[in-house]
Amino acid sequence: MRVALFVSCLVDLFRPRVGFAAASLLERLGAEVVVPPAQTCCGQPAYNSGDFDTAREIARPLIDALGFYEHVVVPSGSCAGMLILHYPELFKAEPLWQAKAETLAARTRELSAFLAEHGGDKLIDASFAGKVAMHDSCSARRELGVHAQPRALLEQVAGLEQVELKDAETCCGFGGTFCVKYPDISGRMVSDKAEAVAASGADVLVSGDLGCLMNIAGRLKRMNSQVRVYHLAEVLAGMADQPGMGEPDKP
Q1: What is the pLDDT of residues 66-122, one digit of tens each?
Q2: Can you tell me whether residue 3 is helix, strand or coil?
Q3: Contact 168/37 with Cβ under 8 angstroms?
Q4: Number of structural domains found in the chain
Q5: Per DSSP, which regions of the chain are E strands?
Q6: Residues 159 and 104 grouped into a single domain
Q7: Looking at 81, 116, 151, which one is the last position of a domain?
Q8: What are the tens digits of pLDDT across the range 201-219?
């Protein structure tokens, strides 16, 4: 099984360890993991801003870079949603490119969904002693229907106790360019989310989307919260003993 790992811009630039964790989990399935060097941004910022021409310019070379792999796995619900749902829509007036986009969409999965579909829960051998709350990104939960899969995977982590957040389905306020366009609204939303995290009694917050994690981690840090923040892949791959989001690296 040959799998292309689309790492996403945020993972590449801000949290490369998530990419290594995702690759490790996929390799446990027996996959040959390839990180295509020609991969770029998926074009989501342009798409969300209504600049569909630029989004198409970005999408075309990425479709070509990823389109011939048997599987494409993305450790990000928002980027996976872009490839799976929005690429075919972007090219609805271009039949050739729409066909390519639909082929790519059919082969693409968000990381936890892919692991769940391929028996990855049987291969989780990590341990973590503490309470963990899961934040579902809007794209993962609403667009892709990813909700039960990450929780089932976390159930396999020895010693881990899951707790649910109040109003868990509520957006954290990141929303890609939303947090830039509407900072006051976004700030209020992430404050509510951070307060829910604190009220849950969780030691750690996890999510499958780095944008959400960066947003929430920043707010928790400004609240002087001791809650650590990790990407789901880091916990599943046994990397949760290293610094979390917003924490300084160990010397």
Answers
A1: 988 999 999 999 999 999 999 999 999 999 999 999 999 999 999 999 999 999 888
A2: strand
A3: no
A4: 2
A5: 2-5, 32-34, 71-74, 108-110, 127-135, 158-163, 204-207, 228-231
A6: no
A7: 116
A8: 999 999 999 999 988 999 8
